[in-house]
Automatic annotation (TrEMBL), chains A, B:
InterPro entries in the record: DNA-bd_dom_put_sf, MerR-type_HTH_dom, MerR_fam, Tscrpt_reg_MerR_DNA-bd
Protein name per Swiss-Prot or TrEMBL: Helix-turn-helix domain-containing protein
UniProt keyword list: Coiled coil, DNA-binding, Plasmid, Transcription, Transcription regulation
HTH merR-type domain mapped to chain residues: 5-74
Cited PANTHER family: HEAVY METAL-DEPENDENT TRANSCRIPTIONAL REGULATOR HI_0293-RELATED (PTHR30204:SF94), REDOX-CYCLING DRUG-SENSING TRANSCRIPTIONAL ACTIVATOR SOXR (PTHR30204)
Keyword Lipid metabolism: no
Signal peptide: none
UniProt keyword Transcription regulation present: yes
Provenance organism: Jiella pelagia
Chain segments annotated as coiled-coil in the UniProt record: 89-116
One Pfam assignment: MerR-DNA-bind
SMART domains: HTH_MERR (SM00422)
DNA sequence: TGTGCACCCTGTAGCAACTACAGGGTCAAG
DNA sequence: CTTGACCCTGTAGTTGCTACAGGGTGCACA
């Protein structure tokens, strides 16, 4: 018990996490509260280091906090089948694929809008035009409504 | 002036925006405050409709609120060159491309992690393994630190 | 005339996942 | 014995909304 004894700053450095983020994870019960020193400093063990590394890796892979919480809960039940783990990862993958598709559609649209820029004045700007509703009525602009 | 006279609900329907969102845009000065009726209801003109449509379209294309603000400001200066408009769109496109790259890397990683799932117990789960730090020490789990 | 309902108003709090203070305490070096 | 780096708590800010609570307005229908 209580091996290593890392300060919060040490743990932060070891896991490339900000000190505030570690305290935040503790507040939301993602990382268990460590013991304290006489001076009320947090004192972390190797177990904390492992758990925080897991959290960071999962977060880097885009898992949400709640997904990470579920994964951590599952990883503690070593002899249960890992279907639930698989399901979480699969769901996340599906979400990532969906985002990629959406962004690619977006990129195509932005590409096409940008390709039309003739570098004239704002009045002729195809980018503004593309963003505007049903054919900008001649006379100008987006029709800034003045609060008269 | 004050043509059309749409209620906030009408404007919401016309632009597929929630009423609360319209009020929010007014609060952050993205959409100018409209005139009020005798009963203190907001009364919108066609100009408001145009501007809100522009905002929605830009937001759908993933421009941030601040970018939309800039685009609106620029679109009012009809006789200035449209380089600044072009720059905003280009920057946004670069950002979108970056996100796509990141997500594709992520997808590859998730794909590879998932392909290793042998559907055994959590103890043998390659997904958990892949998320864990430097070779999980035999004995188990992510080493949940108990607050003893 | 009432009364019911859909709509509108303001103001505040909540979401994710942190980040950034303010205003203090602790600890080791010089 | 002071300086500076670190730590503590608690609260507020970020982005872009969304969701109430607790009221007021306006119009149709009986």
């Amino acid at each position: 018990m209580a091996c290593e004894n890392l300060s919060i700053g040490d743990l932060a450095k070891a896991t490339s996490t900000k000190v505030e983020t570690i305290r935040y994870y503790e507040r939301i019960s993602l990382l268990p509260a460590p013991e304290r020193t006489a001076g009320n400093y947090r004192s972390y063990s190797a177990a904390h280091l492992g758990r925080l590394s897991f959290i960071r890796r999962a977060r880097d892979l885009g898992f949400s906090i709640e997904q990470v919480r579920d994964l951590l809960g599952l990883s503690d039940q070593r002899d249960r089948p890992c279907e639930a783990v698989d399901a979480i990862a699969r769901e996340h993958l599906a979400e990532v694929k969906r985002k990629i598709r959406d962004l690619q559609a977006l990129r195509r649209e932005l590409d096409s809008i940008l390709s039309q820029c003739s570098r004239g004045t704002v009045a002729e700007c195809q980018i503004i035009e593309a963003l505007s509703p049903t054919a900008t009525p001649r006379g100008g602009g987006i029709r800034t409504p003045e609060t008269e």
